[in-house]
Design a protein that fits this description.
This protein has 7 helices and 11 strands. By secondary structure, it is α/β, with parallel strands linked by helices. It has a single domain, classed as Metallo-beta-lactamase, Chain A (4-Layer Sandwich), CATH 3.60.15.10. The chain has a 7-stranded mixed beta sheet with strand order 1-2-3-4-5-6-7, covered by helices on one side. Strands 8-9-10-11 form a 4-stranded mixed beta sheet, with helices on one face.
């Protein structure tokens, strides 16, 4: 048995709502609190009102996955939402050279350090207009270690987060040590939240982050999609208030 189970089946489209799909990708190893820990991965695809496809945090691109995606329409936009979620953009650009690429603050620098794709069309900036702005609202949550671009698909009322909430299911973790680490970090289902090490990096920005969470709540999302662990198909506002109750002024 692997250290952590993936969300089978992987590398296939799974419908979440009208014009919204997720793809559960492979497990990756990521440096976390001085350790190399396994993380399941997840991406989101949105079909925009004009028929183009918008891809958030792309996972590994397999030939069979590409065939499935190509039946949906043309990929126009590839999004790297924070400095951790950019690794496979290079592969997608190779497969879809006509797609435009956008990155959250800090992605270019991190990618350059790791000899990955850095030729992004633009850095995501809150308040700017983008080709998808009619379909998706966006805000940028600024932190010390990283900043994350958050999106809200208005038609389906779907909130897209990446690492601001992690929600690992203990029954999917075979290693007792990794079970302990996931619980200690605070990112364990059913009470998933931002891991404690990331929370510390947002300490100096916690009031700005609280304002960002209040904006997310004001959008009145129905569901929350996240990159790592079980996502939230309902009660999104309550989950936001619970997960971010460590911030000033946010109460469950």
């Amino acid at each position: 048995m692997d250290v952590i189970e993936t969300y089978e089946p992987t590398n296939i489209l799974k419908t979440v709502a009208d014009d919204v799909w997720i793809v559960d990708g492979p497990v990756i190893k990521f440096g976390y609190m001085g350790l190399k820990l396994p993380f399941p991965t997840r991406m989101t695809i949105v079909k925009l009102a004009d028929g183009g496809l918008w891809v958030h945090s792309p996972t590994a691109l397999t030939s069979s996955l590409k065939e499935q995606i190509d039946t949906l329409g043309q990929i126009r936009y590839l999004i790297a939402p924070n400095r951790i979620h950019y690794w496979w953009i290079e592969d997608w650009v190779g497969a879809y050279p006509g797609a435009e690429t956008y990155a959250a603050p800090g992605v270019r620098e991190q990618a350059r350090d790791n000899d990955r794709f850095t030729d992004y069309k633009s850095e995501l900036t809150e308040g700017d207009r983008y080709p998808w702005s009619g379909d998706l609202d966006m805000l940028v949550v600024v932190g010390g270690y990283m900043s994350e671009a958050v999106f809200f698909h208005k038609a389906s009322r779907t909130l897209l987060l990446t690492d601001l909430i992690e929600n690992f299911e203990r029954e999917k973790i075979a290693s007792p040590f990794f079970k302990f680490v996931s619980k200690f970090s605070g990112g364990c289902d059913p009470n998933g939240k931002m891991p404690i090490d990331l929370r510390l990096t947002f300490f100096m920005h916690r009031r700005q982050m609280a304002n960002a969470v209040r904006t997310m709540i004001s959008w009145q999302p129905q569901r929350i999609l996240i990159a790592h662990g079980r996502w939230y198909p309902e009660n999104a506002v309550s989950e936001l208030k619970r997960a971010f109750s460590w911030l000033p002024g946010i109460t469950p």
